[in-house]
Amino acid sequence: MAPPTSTPTLTRRPAGTDDGAPRVKEPRQGAFARAVRRNLTAHAFLIGAVLCFGFFSWYPMVREVVLAFQKTENGVVSWAGWSNFVYVFNDPDFALAWRNTALFTLLALLLGFVVPFVIALVLNEFRHARGYLRLLVYLPVMLPPVASVLLFKYFYDPGHGLFNRLLELFGLPAQQWLQSSDTAMLSLVIASTWMNMGGACLIYLAALQTIPGELYEAAELDGAGLLRKIWHVTIPQTRLILSLLFLMQIIATMQVFTEPFLLTGGAGPEGSTTTVVHLIYQYAFNFNNYGAAAALGLVLLVVLAGFSAAYVRLNRAEQE
Amino acid sequence: MRSSGFSTPHRRRTAVTFVSALTLLSLAACGTSSSGDQDPAPGGSADAATPLDPKTKLTLTIDCMPPAAKKAELKQWKEDVATFNKTYPNITIDGRSTPGQCLEPPRFTAMLKAKSQPDVFYAYFTDLDQVLDNDGAADISAYVNEKTVPALADIDPDVMKVLKKDDKLYALPTSNYRMGLLINRGLFEKAGLDPDTPPSTWEEVREAADKIAGLGKGIAGFGEYSAGNTGGWHYTATVYGEGGEIVGPDGKAAFNDATGKRVAQNLYDMRWKDDSMGKTQLLKWGDLQKQMATDKLGMFLAAPDDITYMVQQLGADYANFGMGPMPGQKATLFGGNSYMIKKGISSDKIKAAVAWLDLKTLSPGKGQFAWSRTKADGLPVGLPQPAFFTGAAKEQDDKERADHATMPVENFRAFTDNPVDGKAEPPKAQEVYKVLDTVMSTLLTNKDADIDKLLDTAEQQVNQVLANQ
């Protein structure tokens, strides 16, 4: 007979050593069963979401990793080692696409990060018609992206587009906008900023409204002007939101596709708007090379994940 | 202190189970792509050669049934199904229609990958390699013969050749085209040009484009693509027309020569010296058609069915268009559409598919070649496309087409009376076109373009693409 124990054993008995003593009930299973019973309704509600995520999000991710190391020839799927990655790195447009994507991200940060913040600052100062102005700023977000992009296609037309007409009114020379490799990328960024800044503006505005008025009053008493108040009060008080949106902006802009695809046909003048995601699209849907598309997608994922991790760590270190 | 009832080993076990399940799921998914799911035809190839037993009962799914918006075409489809069912009363034709084009490359490649294509599916001539790579089409060589397709001997051998690989037949044609020069007759007349004799050399094209652009009001004389890989496609067509090659017999880029440079220089001159190509560039398929349909463009390289698109979708008038041969006339890019039959379906289904395609797309006087019906339904008759018959079938079809023409067929006389040899697309066509697209977009958007440097870079990149496996 087993000696009585004050604490139940956590290990199973080896097979064939049963001496007829009553089994000690395994507390882990019991705890698990109790936990399941206690949250049965919650688990039932979760099942749908988990299945959806599993099927439409996690499974495709796993498949992408698998595809990146496979090739299909004459209907036979085989492991390809690193050959898809070699193909991608040997593509003459590989470096160009990364350069263009980096340029778009940089310009989109300069414009798309600063402009909504400045607009939010201005909106925050208004005492009248604030709701109307907010709606006005948010309106472009409600337009379908394709409609917005096509609108800009007409604005940018070098012959009779709105922008060149406006330049003419002020006696300025007409620009080629999307038709020149010098201005095509900037034109994409302007369109993208207009389309997307509404959401960022509202988030900034909400953050600005949480800043206590006393801080500004104290700064004024210390003789701070407008810029100093923004630098010493507004930015530190909204740093968390700014960091978050900065990160999200980078992740979103590095995946740019709709704007170049619709405005410049993808590659643009002299290939100046070929982006990484457009290259992925070309591999998958024009070249039928899903392996290469998955490989480049994986490279992009690694870059974005690495960048995100570094940034989050930096941010955490700053806060500590 | 634990926050939940899960111990560390338990959590590890759960994680291991989850990862194993995902791995198994992935491997299972990979397994579905193997080529072992072919249902062999009972009775072997001798059995395959015999026509379908009229008593056979089955359901056949078929791509590209006209959508409800195309009433006349849908009516004809239903009539053809009824005709088919007179011979094969137990076969159900389950037509699948798609809005817009029958085949959109992104949807098509995804469909092949998912193996969700119907039993009989629509494909471009150039899709054969990618379909076979995805194990998507059945070898129908044994099923197609003089008994099952009576007009087989009269189908252009060049067309049949592109539907074969290693001497095995994988598709049957539904339409084919040879590229030529599409003109706006109204603008030709306004510019003092003769629309009955369209330009046949690039010197003549340049001269005519200059005169048409001289009409002003934003009218361009000649238009070209330079985006979405279509620019590379047209650069290829133009080089072919001048007798050049894109990829030589040695498998390397062959366009960086006097011909390739002459083509590039001519486009550059029309764009920047003559200013006869309009200001808006980076155009792709669909853009030039809109310009021409609204009388803003005088000429562009196209296949005859672009006219149908402009009339049916953009409201233009057939009488306003004409066609000439490909400038240069040394060769022209040719292509077309076909139907393939899904690999793995039963032998009877393949026979039924061949019988349906024979009726619908391969018999003079029937299906798509029933020109009297087409005319009665208010659809156009008289375009020089499809044109894949030769011999007696061609004679019969030409006569019926002329008898029921609903448009001035003499507008296409310059095109039909000056047939130019067809030439297939280069290997790795889309990847090569992507590189050549940059050549076109640079020529048409950069006034300081250095043609020698441009073609040197493109040659190097195309060689890189061709060597990249």
From TrEMBL, chain A:
SUPFAM superfamilies assigned: MetI-like
Where are the residues of the annotated region Disordered?
1-24
Record's InterPro entries?
Answer: ABC_transporter_permease (IPR051393), MetI-like (IPR000515), MetI-like_sf (IPR035906)
- State the membrane topology: Multi-pass membrane protein
Q: What is this protein called?
A: Sugar ABC transporter permease
**Recorded family membership:** Belongs to the binding-protein-dependent transport system permease family.
Q: Tell me the domain of life.
A: Bacteria
Q: Which UniProt keywords apply?
A: Cell membrane, Membrane, Transmembrane, Transmembrane helix, Transport
Q: Which GO terms describe its biological process?
A: transmembrane transport
Please list every transmembrane segment annotated in the UniProt record, as residue ranges: 40-59, 102-123, 135-156, 184-207, 238-257, 290-312
The record's annotation in Pfam families points to:
BPD_transp_1
Automatic annotation (TrEMBL), chain B:
Superkingdom of the organism of origin: Bacteria
| Matching InterPro entries | Bact_solute-bd_prot1 (IPR050490), SBP (IPR006059)
> Pfam family example for this protein?
SBP_bac_1
Q: Which Gene3D superfamilies match?
A: Periplasmic binding protein-like II
What protein does this entry describe?
Sugar-binding protein
Originating species: Streptomyces albidoflavus
* Upper lineage: Bacteria, Bacillati, Actinomycetota, Actinomycetes, Kitasatosporales
